[in-house]
Every structure is written in C-alpha cells, then in structure tokens.
C-alpha cells in the first residue's frame, strides 16, 4: 500500500497553504512504522508492505514540528482484510484397504496446494489448512471428518496422513482455518477421494481428475465405485465435481440406477456405467448448496490402461443430460475418452 500525507502552512496570510518541503513525516499503522520526507509539493509518499493480521485500526501521520512550525498529526480509520488464496486438492484420489474385510485404509495422504491470486507475494506459511471430508451420503454442510490445523510451507503446500473408512466417493473440501488472521480460501477447492475395499470382486472403481475446458481451473474431479448385487442389479455411487466459471462449485451425484447399469465389454480394460443423478451448485465460501437440479442422467465410460499391453494412461469420459435430454456436461466420448490428469481407474471384469 502507499501512505501519503501533505504538509502545508496553516498560519493564514500570504503563506496560507504553502507546501512545506524537506520536513519529516512519521507514519504508524499498528505495529508498523515508516518515515518519509516531504517533496517540493509538501507530499510525503511511502510504500508499506503489510505484515499484520486482519484487523481494524488507525493510520497515524505525524509531523513533529521544527523551529518554524508547530507539530501536527492526523489519524484515520484503516482496515486490513484477509488476503484471498486459491486452494487445490492434490492428495490421494483412489486408495484400497488391505483386504476385502478391512473397512479402513490406514495411510491416506491428504494434501493441498495454495496459490496466491495477486502479484504481491505474501507469506503462505502463515496459513493453516483444514481438510473437510464429506461421505457420499452426507448432503449437509457439516463434514463427516475434519482434519484441522495442517501446516503450510513457504511454497504453499500442506500435507497430512490419516486413516479413513471405506466410502464410494468422498468430497474433499480444502479451506483455511477460520482463526487464521492472514488468509482466506476464496475460492476453496473441491476434490474427490475413493476409499475402496481391497477385493478382486467384479466391479469398477476410480478417482482422480480429467481436463475440463469448461471449468474455471480446467479440471474436473471424479470418484466412483460400482459393482453388482447378488441379484444382478448394480450398486454403488459416482461423483463428478468442478469449479464453474461463475464462481460456484458444482457437484454431480448419482442417486438411482433406474434405466442404467454397469456394462463390461469384450476387452477386459473397458467398462461403462450409467444412471440418474442430481446437480448441486455450491457456494465455495460456505459449502452450502444454493441451487440444485434433479432427474438428470449420466453415462461414464472407462479404459483401464494398466490392463493393456503395453500399458497406457487410464481414460475417462462422462456425459450428463438434463431432464429434457439436452447435454449439460460432456467430457470425452465413448469412442474417445480423455486421459486422466491424475488418479487411477480400475476395471475388474472377471
């Protein structure tokens, strides 16, 4: 910021308003102080880099007086706001437990990267991150699990390792601890995380992200686990999230397998599943749903590149249709799914 004070003669007569050059002005803003000498126009301009936490205080400018002029000062209200930082989830997206009867993964890596949104570098190490995890079935604004006060390094990276119960698709929300006096997450990043049983049963499961040109950060995150019940009907959940160009986060959550199902093709590395879903428009600051749409349908196509010879990068495609049958979101196609930017897709067809 720039501090500016003007010093002028105030004694009346012909000298009234005359700029006073070469005089020292002292500035005080909370715990910070600066000094500057007035120029020929009587102006003392000084740059100040704020190092204090968010608060309301006064900016005081003071001329101490000299042999010709009395002292003079001024005090004005001043507010320091928290600085915005973008949070991006960079941790695990798909992890398996140690066996088919073990319901908890013991070493899940949660990590995030913080990115400043302006050209003025600040100390990201003053931030503390909170990971808020919502099970697929949790539609409230209260997280299922919270991992708080995670330290951030100078490069903006935060990481912790936790134990987590199996869930088809967690939503991971990365926020800055509210008690932090320097930074606020705006926008706060959403990610996905699948914790699946370590089993060889016939199913598809996956988590990660794909390029999404229609999103604000060119990323879309997905998570799913889909298998068959004993009666042959499909079971499981699927999630797709992205940051909208309108400033909101969007979550697409499966809610019915009516009219859809799980399909394995002749090639063991290919599969698809489809069903019905709802779309939620999320306030990135509060995590609250501000609008939602139901009775949408979705189709997901998968390629497990680890099963091919030679191995390839896994691929994913999703098409989401409105209740009127119009395309609402399209990433890749069945014949041309897109390569994952990160994460993993697992197809177990036998």
Summary keywords:
350 residues, mainly beta, 2 domains, 10-stranded antiparallel sheet, 5-stranded mixed sheet
Alpha-carbon distance between the two ends: 64 Å
Uncertain segments: none
Which term fits the overall shape? elongated
Q: Indicate the percent of residues in helices.
A: under 10%
Hey, roughly how much beta strand do the residues contain? over 45%
What is the H/E order? EEEEEEEEEEEEEEEEEEEEEEEEE
Walk me through the structure.
This protein is mainly beta and 350 residues long. It has two domains: 2-80; 83-348. The protein is built from no helices and 25 strands. The protein has strands at 2-6, 24-29, 32-37, 43-47, 55-63, 72-80, 83-89, 94-96, 104-116, 128-134, 145-151, 157-165, 167-176, 183-185, 189-196, 203-211, 219-228, 234-243, 249-264, 270-282, 289-303, 315-321, 327-331, 338-339, 342-348. The strands form five sheets. Strands 16, 17, 18, 19, 20, 21, 22, 23, 24 and 25 form a ten-stranded antiparallel beta sheet that branches. β16 (203-211) and β17 (219-228) form a beta hairpin. The chain is elongated and about 100 Å long. The protein starts with a strand and ends with a strand.
